[in-house]
Amino acid sequence: MARASLRENLVAAAVEQFHTHGYAAAGVKDITDAAGAPKGSFYNHFASKEALAVVALERYGASLRLEGLRDSSVAPLTRLRRHFEFLRDENIATEFNRGCLVGDFAVEVADHSEAVRESVRMSLEVWADALDFAIAEAQQAGDVSKTLEASTLARFVLSAWEGALISARADRSARAFEGFFTVVFGLILR
Amino acid sequence: MARASLRENLVAAAVEQFHTHGYAAAGVKDITDAAGAPKGSFYNHFASKEALAVVALERYGASLRLEGLRDSSVAPLTRLRRHFEFLRDENIATEFNRGCLVGDFAVEVADHSEAVRESVRMSLEVWADALDFAIAEAQQAGDVSKTLEASTLARFVLSAWEGALISARADRSARAFEGFFTVVFGLILR
Predict the structure, then answer these.
(1) I need a surface site. Which of A82, B2, B155, B176 has the fewest CB within 10 A?
(2) Cβ separation of B107 and A104 shorter than 8 Å?
(3) Where in the sequence is the domain holding A33, given as residue range(s)?
């Protein structure tokens, strides 16, 4: 019991530390300190910081509320809009810092760790699949043109979101999010 | 003369080292070694690694061929397409590693350095202005709908590009670039 709980604390602390400081800048000691754990306990639970990063990314992915994109009680375009509104509001709440941990790891770690790169790739794939599901339903409902495939639109919209986070972070403003909603819901998903 | 040349070497080495390894992972010694300069010489030229990062970002910005977006001898949509084809081909040539130094710094450094954040913000602004110029000309020529403002489209397309680099890097493939060209030139800029 105690062990499982310590491991959980380490994962939660890692998500927070990686997201706030970045992968390179968040050391094992920062993570164990934040988890209230002795540094020596780290390697009882994880083979390396890299191995913890993969678990942290899975944990982060579970916080993205992808299940909402498959909730058939809500109209598909409404689901899509709410999904990005939720992500936007989270980013505004952290004052445009942090970005998305998936994109952060893609930029900072993917070139240097095959395990993290594969984990980022899978995270984006699962996310794009959930968007694809909602967009395909919107196409079936006649709310979005079928000119382009739902999977192409889903991957593009996800990239545009990751890019909007980059601009918002540089700009410390929600301007990039406004542009995202205007173009995605005014031009692309219609 | 010798001093100016050493400074140039340090800037060129910094662009390469930051782009390849990231900001945190590229140390001052890595940069002086790559420039063939003694480590002690660094602080004759730059107050800090952060100050060098700002200069490196300006240098990188000058390599983006933004001037091509204002070349009135070429049709505006052709300029826009060639601009992103050039960036795509560079990214394929580096095997989908590295991404864009502007986006890399936005993700890794902007939260932690006000000087770098401001430099990233300016880089994106100058880049978006050049895209805006070409898109506005395409609208004037009747090649792109005027429904949305050129500046909104320009900022969105730039974000979508930065996001496509994230996907390409995670995926080690050009698939995200294909989606970018399909949606940008098939749906947004028309």
Answers:
(1) B2
(2) yes
(3) 2-56
